[in-house]
Amino acid sequence: MSGSILHPVIFLSLSCLHFTLSFSIRDVMQVDGKRGETSAIICPTWHPFACPSGECLPIKYLCDGSADCSDSYDENHRMCTAFTRPPVEETAAFLQALLQAHGKDFLVKVFGNKAANNLEGMGGIDKAAVALSQSKTADQFANDIGLKAEDEKRMVMVMEGILNGNNGELSPNEAADFRFFVQKLQETGFF
């Protein structure tokens, strides 16, 4: 019986704290080919971004051209690119939805043969989503994900075609489903 009373008390105590477990993109970001550390830093809600060095920053200080983390992590070019793009989770969900709607090999039309079987040759949906989020350019994406030069050229041609109304291999529905995301990539300098 005392256990049932204890749980609400613990819940109330935790819900009254003004600190939250902070989010850091380093949990999904690759730096020099390695995933970031996953140790949690507790930051106040008004400074939710955790620097790897331990400082806590307000979101408005990220990617503002001035290093606020002692290790300059808040100005990391990959993180700052990801900061301008749709979140990794949304990108992964979007890629998954495209594959469900159009088939497991649909993205071969965009990325080439490495995208067969649900992006298996590209490391899977999550790896592709991280690379799309943090790669500043199509060239960097191709390098990160291991695309051949001809596949990179094809990818850019397909994406430019989607924006220009020349769908190429894509049906009008396929192009329409992909257009919003391609616009976001173009707006942030991917191609």
From TrEMBL:
Keywords: Disulfide bond, Signal. This is Prohormone-4. Gene3D superfamilies: Low-density Lipoprotein Receptor (4.10.400.10). The keyword Cytoplasm does not apply. Residues 1-22 form the signal peptide. It comes from Diploscapter pachys. The lineage of its organism: Eukaryota, Metazoa, Ecdysozoa, Nematoda, Chromadorea. Disulfide bonds join C51-C69. The keyword Signal applies.
